[in-house]
Write a structure and sequence with these properties.
Number of helices: 6
Largest sheet: none
CATH architecture: Up-down Bundle
Oligomer: single chain
Distance between the termini: 8 Å
Helix content: 55-70%
CATH class: Mainly Alpha
Low-confidence stretches: none
Number of domains: 1
Shape: globular
Radius of gyration: 16 Å
Structural class: mainly alpha
CATH topology: Glutathione S-transferase Yfyf (Class Pi), Chain A, domain 2
Order of helices and strands: HHHHHH
Number of strands: 0
Length: 116
């Protein structure tokens, strides 16, 4: 459904913009160098927070389900989302509590069928 894909891309773009925007503590007021992009690992810095624990599983599910049932991939130019997920996948706390992709695909099979 093109409208759903457009809405998803719009939401992902907002998240990507946020993840790529430097937080105040990333900006050195005394530096002559202008920081235009964030390098933080998570939503609020380099430490995993409760907000990440809420968002990351949902983002992972969207990534898995959209790829499997709609052949939709997160656009590679969304570097903030890519960095965010890469940092999550590097954490044992995330990978050890995340269901396998096959489990997610199976759980959303009926939903995907109804949306065809």
């Amino acid at each position: 459904n093109p409208d759903l894909e457009k809405s998803l891309l719009k939401a992902l773009k907002k998240l990507d913009n946020y993840l790529n925007s430097p937080l105040p503590d990333e900006i050195d007021a005394y530096s002559t160098e202008e920081i235009t992009a964030s390098s933080r690992k998570f939503l609020d810095g380099d430490e995993l927070t409760l907000a990440d624990c809420n968002l990351l599983p949902k983002l992972h599910i969207i990534k898995v389900v959209a790829k499997k049932y709609r052949n939709f991939h997160f656009p590679p130019e969304m570097t903030g989302i890519s960095r965010y997920l890469k940092n999550a996948y590097a954490r044992d706390e995330f990978t050890n509590t995340c269901p396998a992709d096959q489990e997610i695909e199976y759980a959303y099979l009926d939903v995907a069928k109804r949306m065809k």
